[in-house]
Amino acid sequence: MIGVIAKLLGGPLVSLAGDIAARVAPNKDALAAQGHGETMTTLQGYAAEFTATRPNRTWWDSFVDGLNRLPRPFMAFGVLAVMAWAPLDPIGFAEAMRVYALVPEWLTGLLGGVAAFYFAARHLEKRLDAKSVAPAEVAQVMADVAALKAMGAPTPPPEAASMGDGDFRFAMSSPEPMPDGAIAEWNRRRKAGRH
């Protein structure tokens, strides 16, 4: 009985199912071979581009080719440097960013368009609204920068109160570390010429 079922299923039904499966599901080996062929063709094109020698190539051509490869790495490393600058020097970073706020929007758009050109992803809009900076805004930014500089300035230590002669002699003869008041008194006496 099993032999009869195997003959029925093993013959035309199996080949029919195989034909249907081949039409519905693609052959993965054939797709992989085709993808590999396309990849190799692309890589060979890149290799030909960079290994081809041009006739009459001068040192100037090599120099300009080298310069043309610099903007993208410089921009990428510049962005990383700005990200590192913020925690290393927060006051300086805040000052610079506050001053960058004065850059007009149209110029920011233009610089952004140039950077996007090098990364081959964006284009500049045809019309940008020009906005001038008001003098009051410049004055406010300058005040903000002055306030930021004041925040970063070191504050002098508070002036210690003067000590009486007995307290000073006791502090000087004690084996314990001298308090701030005794050190300040010693400095005052040294400047005055009386130890």
From TrEMBL:
The record's section on InterPro entries has: GTA_holin_3TM
Q: Where is this region: Disordered?
A: 174-195
Which keywords describe this protein according to UniProt?
Membrane, Transmembrane, Transmembrane helix
Task: Report what the protein is called.
Answer: Carboxylesterase
Supply the Pfam families for this chain.
GTA_holin_3TM
Report the transmembrane regions from the record: 99-121
